[in-house]
Structure formats: C-alpha cells, structure tokens
Amino acid sequence: MKAFPEKFLWGGALAANQVEGAWQEDGKGVSTSDVQPQGVFGEVVERRPGDFGIKDVAIDFYHRYPQDIALFAEMGFGCLRVSIAWTRIFPRGDEQEPNEAGLAYYDRLFDELAKHGIKPMVTLSHYEMPWELVKNYGGWGSRELITFFERYARSVFTRFKNKVKLWLTFNEINMSLHAPMTGVGLAEDSSKTEIYQAIHHQLVASALVVKACREIVPDARIGNMLLGGLMYPLTCKPQDVLKTMQENRSWLFFGDVQCRGVYPGYMLRYFRDNGIEVKMTDADREALKNTVDFISFSYYLTGCVTADEEVNAKARGNILSMVPNPYLASSEWGWQIDPTGLRILLNELWDRYQKPLFIVENGLGAKDRLEADGTVHDDYRINYLNDHLVQVGEAIEDGVEVLGYTCWGPIDLVSASKAELSKRYGFIYVDRDDQGNGTLARTPKKSFYWYKEVIATRGASLKQ
C-alpha cells in the first residue's frame, strides 16, 4: 500500500454526551441527550431525583481523560475530534455569561492534548442542546436560538482561540430529518414545515458561526459535518435511478447550502410540491453566504432505493428506512458493510464541492469479548477498518483532497442510536456493561496495536 500524505491527520472521534459522564458536575445543565436515556431515537423522559441513565457516567472520560489521551498518544494520534457540551458552557442556553467551570474543564482537556502533540477538532453541537431551550423556546423552531448559539460559539472561540484551530458546527446536521428531537429539539410528530423551518434556523446559525470563527480565530479552519447517507439504485430502471437521486439530494441539500451559500433549486421545488413554507429573511440569505472551509462527514453504511413500494414496505433498515443491498454483508446491528462506498462518496463530494474533505466518523460496532487473559481479539474490526482505509487511499490517488481520518469511538463508549455500551467501537475496551456494572478499567484490544502500526507507517501497512 502506498503511504498516505505526510500532512494527513490520523486519530479518533468522541462526543461529550457519549463519553464524559459527570452529567451534573461543575454547573452543567440538563441537555436533550440527558432526557433521551434510550438514545437518539428514544422517547424523552424528564429527569427525576435518583433516576439513572447509562450516559450519566458513560465511561467517565470527564475524570479519566489524561489516562485515555495517553493511550491515544501511544497509538500515535495526531488529531482527536471531541465535542463541547453546550450545557457545560451555558447550562440553560439563554444566559448572558458562560459558566467558568465548564470553560476551565475544556481548557484542561485541550492542554492535555497539546502535551501529547494531538490537535483537537471540536464540534460545537453533537447531538445535544440545552433542554431548557426546548422547554422554554420550542427548540430550533424558535429564531431566538440563532442568537443563543452564536453567543455560545463566540464564547468558546474567544476562550480557546489559541488552542483549537479545527472546528465543526453541527454533528450530522441532516439527521434532523430522521430524529428531530435529537437534531433540532422538536417532537417526532412535527410537520415537515416545522422541521425544515428549524433546520433553516440551524443553517443560518451555522453560517453566522463560520463568520464569527473567521473574525475571532482567523488562522482556524471551520467545517460542516454531514451524515454520509450514500444510496444506490436497486435496479437500473430509470424510476429507481431518479428516486435515488432525490434520496441523495435530501441529505446533500445540507452540504449544498453550507458549501455554496444558497438553497438549491431542487429543494425549493420540493418545498413547493409538498406545501412546505420556510420563512427566510434577506438577512438570512446574506448570512448563508458564509460558507465552510471544508466538509467533514461520517460514513458507516450504504443502502438501496427503489420506486417499487411493495419492496419498500418489506424492507426497513437500521437508521434510515432503506432497502438492503443483496451484494453486501451486514454487521451484528444490521448495518451493511461497504468499503467501496467510501471511495465513491469521497469522489462524489469532491466532484460536487471541490473543498477539502475530512472523514470524522467511521467504525464498526460489535459485541467484543474480553478473554480470560485480558485480551480482545477483534480481527473483524481490523478487517473492516483496513478495507475502508484502503479505499480512502484509492480516493486520494483519484485526486480527492482528504485532510484526515478520525475513527469513531477509539475507546468504547455509549452508542448514540440505542444508548448501549455493549455495542463497542473502540481500540480500547472499557469494563462497563449496559446496566452500569464494571470497574471502568481500560484494556487495549488487538486493533489498538494494528492502528498504531497503520499510523506509524502512514497507511503503508494496510493490506489490499
């Protein structure tokens, strides 16, 4: 395998609500994640004294981050993607001044990363927002959230401008179409008009934050983050191909707005055809012109699309309702494994936008077993990651500008979809189960040493 470029950033990716725990420490407020104990698609459950959620402690990264970062450094990480918990900085979301204890925590975290030569990439909002903003304002359905989010972003840009040079606005911003509470703080039964209005407010907020970042941290780069939902036509029937184009556009629309600065014509037609009225001001349209510096995305699986409603009724996928691909194998959680799709997606995004790309999530969730001798033989994970990274290398050879790769969950964490610890992604095993039992001890898996070699050889050790 040919070595990856010298400046290519290798590392891993985490989210505050899936690793930190310490859910009420140092003045942190209640987030939407805190009231979704069953994950991003689960029901909202108001917190009561004495109740328990697996994310309340998660893997206790809040207190154990020095130990974990030392392990990441041992693997050779050049980059760690983390998120700031909005509720640590503005507990209710609408305060005038930030919470100093929350800012101080991230100061310590970034200093620890710097000690090991690891660059932080920071997501401003990763599947959580202050619960008080949902209760008191109606979530992103309210235009007032634009002001609150910009205040939050400006606070952290100002505080960490000398420590963080890579920023992302909203995690998997297109997920709001499938999980509106998680994405925009709206009820699952909200109308399309309500959801797209909330999404519009979020897109405007993202663009204003891009502008603020350039003012406050001029030497930084700020990107968006898409859920890479690449779909294939099930057959070569023109109807299937047309419907596939429309399905792919449903999520590429977010990238089009964030990279081109305007709503695409196909989306305006979709609004017209479906009776969706999104209120946009001239100031909104002007704000949207603040486009991102690079595109980051997650990639886990692909699916198929058909115009045949009978086939659609029979097949419902794991995250998005999709028809399975008969040519692909699946993970234990039913996610279809498609390394070649990553190369296709990288080329599609590069051809569409001509902006640098960053793969900020990719990984395999599996039921790992800790052996009696203290080892985890996760060859299935090694094979999965190897095959995907080979395709990243192919895309780079194709001429695609890829900035880096941060594997999802370099240490076991609470999964987003179902809030499970049994769905493990990490190179490092954490001794904790779905009921919260365990010592939280960290144990490197076989994949830990494999990834260490991949980084040390800049990908030359990958097997084609």
Low-confidence stretches: none
Question: What proportion of the residues form beta strands (DSSP E)?
Answer: 5-15%
DSSP E strands, number:
12
Largest sheet: 8 strands, parallel, barrel
- Report the total helices: 15
Distance between the termini: 7 Å
SS class:
alpha/beta
Percent helix, as a range, is: 25-40%
Can you tell me the overall shape?
A: globular
- For this structure, the quaternary state is single chain
Radius of gyration from CA coordinates: 21 Å
Spatial strand sequence of the major β-sheet = 1-2-3-4-5-7-9-10
Mean pLDDT: 96
What pattern of helices and strands is seen along the backbone? EHHEHHEHHEHHEEHHHEEHHEHEEEH
Explain what the structure shows.
With 464 residues, this protein is of the alpha/beta class. It is 39% helix and 12% strand. The protein contains 15 helices and twelve strands. The strands form three sheets. Strands 1-2-3-4-5-7-9-10 form an eight-stranded parallel β-barrel, surrounded by five helices. Helix 2 packs parallel to helix 4 and helix 13 runs parallel beside helix 14. It is globular and about 60 Å long. The protein starts with 8 loop residues before the first strand and ends in an 8-residue tail after the last helix.
What is the gist of this entry?
The protein has 464 residues and is of the alpha/beta class. It contains 15 helices and twelve strands.
Task: Describe the secondary-structure layout.
Blueprint: E1 9-13, H1 16-19, H2 61-75, E2 79-83, H3 86-89, H4 100-115, E3 119-125, H5 131-137, H6 144-160, E4 166-170, H7 180-184, H8 192-216, E5 221-227, E6 231-233, H9 238-260, H10 265-273, H11 282-287, E7 294-298, E8 303-305, H12 309-314, H13 339-353, E9 357-361, H14 379-397, E10 402-408, E11 428-430, E12 442-444, H15 446-456
Parallel strand pairs: 1-2, 1-10, 2-3, 3-4, 4-5, 5-7, 6-8, 7-9, 9-10
Antiparallel strand pairs: 11-12
